[in-house]
Amino acid sequence: MSVIKLNSKNFNDVVLNNNGVVLVDFYADWCGPCKMVSPIVDEIAKERSEITVGKINVDESPELAQKYGIVSIPTLISFENGNVKSMKVGYCPKETILEMVL
After folding, report:
1. How many other CB atoms are there within 10 angstroms of residue 54's CB atom?
2. CA spacing 20 to 30 A to 3: which of 10, 12, 25, 72?
3. Which residues neighbour 91 within 8 Å (Cβ) at sequence distance 6 or greater?
4. Which pLDDT value is given to residue 1?
5. Strands 83-89 and 4-5: what pairing?
């Protein structure tokens, strides 16, 4: 499955109304560590079809970043059945990210 670009218009449908596991990557294009995490998130999206994976550009959707208290990026949040399950801030290796969603 490919990564879904999230924003305030589709966030509720894709994330909060999802009955499964969703991994959300809060990032910005100018962020160095975000550029290191992004290919890992893309890889997980391709390998794990049972997980919905989305990305939110905090510069384009500041209201979502504010709603979830994002103060540093990258921040990864896993949701299960529409509820926050776990959150990691900063660069994380693939194994750590998978632990968040499995």
Report:
1. 23
2. 72
3. 33, 36, 37, 74
4. 79
5. unpaired
Q: What is the pTM of this model?
A: 0.97
Active-site residue among 24, 34, 41, 73?
Answer: 34
The residue type at 7: N
Given 31, 45, 58, 65, the catalytic residue: 31
Distance between CA atoms of residues 60 and 2, nearest Å:
20
- The string of pLDDT tens digits covering residues 75-102 is 999 999 999 999 999 999 999 999 999 9
* Token pair for 25: 């990557």
Active site residue 92: no
Q: In sequence order, what are the residues at sequence separation of 6 or more whose Cβ sits closer than 8 angstroms to the Cβ of residue 24?
A: 6, 15, 53, 54, 55, 56, 76, 77, 78, 79
Instruction: Please name the amino acid found at residue 90.
Output: G
Q: Which residues of the chain have pLDDT under 70?
A: none
